[in-house]
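Please fill in the sequence for the structure shown.

STRUCTURE ENCODING:
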């Protein structure tokens, strides 16, 4: 997380900006990684911080905590949060950076829920305490055209190979052209892409398809959002496609509709909330399915 500065700042602001939530409290950092959230909790006045990290990263966190003079407050534990030796109610606050791609994919929300249900005291606080999932269509004509060109190159290579095989070796491999093309479609056109998005790439305002309230959510909710209908008023954009409105509409919804998520945590008087905000860095994960 340390390298994603905009994200780091949100956490820093939420923790250091709410010292009343941390002063003299026992804090659990679920999946502490480098331990940076734990260190902020200590700086915000916590009396004890348990930085729980499953991997060997824990030893680096330990070194960082010591180097920053916080080892009297922050205890780094190399352990799964599920096997910590803590009592129910022993923890006042849970902090965690648990979000995965598209919020829930490979996320560790289930471990946060475990920690909440097993260690957090009644009325304790979670940072963050809310998350939201958004979809928005995007106009990515250049990216689409690049992928189409790459696929066309792959097919041109195949055709050259096919012709050489036939003339040089007397074997016609033409029967494999169609399945080969299906493979190229999968590879070039149906893969998700990761990229930073800008506001001007959006073809319509985002639709919120799910909100997770961490104070109350169940394990089932951590596995995904149920049916969440959404609609986008996508304007036609004749300059950017064939000019034919029917195919253009198809283009908008089938070629250019992209799945994306935005996770934006910020400080508010009520703590840390998730809300959509349209600016480049807050579109965290981008999945693109060109066709
Ligand atoms: C996204 S990283 C958190 C990064 C951290 N906030 C930082 O600043 O470095 C999630 C971390 O949680 C750890 N983790 C995942 N599941 C865990 C579990 N059940 N118990 C403890 N740690 C876990 C992973 O090893 C990973 O280091």
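FILLED IN BY: designer on duty
SEQUENCE:
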């Amino acid at each position: 997380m340390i390298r994603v500065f905009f994200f780091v700042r949100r956490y820093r602001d939420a923790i250091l900006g709410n010292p009343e939530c941390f002063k003299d409290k026992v804090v659990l950092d679920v999946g502490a990684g480098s331990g940076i959230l734990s260190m902020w909790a200590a700086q915000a006045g916590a009396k004890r911080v348990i930085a729980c990290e499953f991997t060997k990263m824990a030893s680096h966190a330990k070194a960082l905590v010591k180097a920053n003079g916080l080892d009297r407050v922050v205890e780094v534990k190399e352990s799964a949060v599920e096997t910590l030796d803590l009592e129910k109610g022993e923890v006042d606050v849970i902090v965690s950076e648990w979000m995965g791609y598209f919020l829930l994919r490979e996320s560790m929300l289930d471990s946060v829920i475990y920690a909440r249900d097993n260690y957090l005291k009644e009325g304790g606080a979670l940072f963050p305490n809310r998350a939201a999932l958004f979809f928005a269509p995007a106009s990515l004509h250049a990216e689409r055209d690049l992928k189409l060109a790459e696929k066309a190159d792959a097919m041109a290579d195949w055709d050259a190979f096919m012709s050489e095989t036939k003339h040089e070796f007397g074997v016609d491999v033409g029967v494999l052209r169609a399945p080969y093309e299906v493979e190229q479609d999968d590879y070039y056109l149906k893969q998700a892409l990761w990229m930073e998005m800008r506001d001007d790439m959006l073809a319509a305002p985002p639709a919120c398809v799910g909100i997770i309230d961490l104070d109350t959510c169940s394990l089932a909710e951590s596995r995904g959002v149920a049916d969440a209908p959404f609609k986008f008023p996508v304007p036609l954009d004749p300059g950017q496609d064939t000019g034919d409105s029917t195919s253009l509409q198809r283009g908008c919804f089938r070629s250019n509709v992209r799945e994306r998520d935005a996770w934006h945590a910020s400080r508010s008087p009520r703590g840390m909330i998730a809300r959509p905000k349209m600016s480049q860095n807050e579109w965290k994960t981008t999945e693109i399915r060109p066709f």
